[in-house]
Amino acid sequence: MIINCVIGQAGSGKSTFIGQKFPRDQHIFFDVGDILRGMFTCFKGNQGNKNVWSFANPLVYSIMKKCISISSKTNYPVVFDGFPRNSTQVRHLHRYLTSPRLGKVEVLVHCLDINIDEQMSRIEKRNGGLDDYQIKRIKQSRNDFEGVLDEIEKLILDSRNHPVSYECKWYKQIDDGFILEEPRR
Q: Would you say the pTM of this structure is higher than 0.85?
């Protein structure tokens, strides 16, 4: 089974990348942010300091497990847009993937990294401005991205002790396209 995790800071181009790299009729897609925004639009503007609500994680984990289950039965690869978003979600995903019933799992982590000035510019264009919440969200997304990378690095180093293989692929953006870079870290 193949799982593609497309990660990056808020505004890094995850959805655009997925649209360019993964044909819709050949993958199972899970766009975490889109689902949560669609379900909980009533909270827009009332999020306070939280980017992920405490009650959202059980829902996210449940859908994640269902996508993986369907993938294992159909052999369609899964594409996670914005998942895992933080180190806790990496650990939760890994625990589920090491289940004996899943067998061999290959996780390709597609990393989109942008500098903070570009990130602020993109989010400002997307939202029509930057308020305190968006600035906090930018900082949090950068910290979360680093936390995800640290957790995945641990899993790569410990790969002899579990049946899941992890590979990080880094991309740079040029003219609205994404080009694979040399491995990092």
A: yes
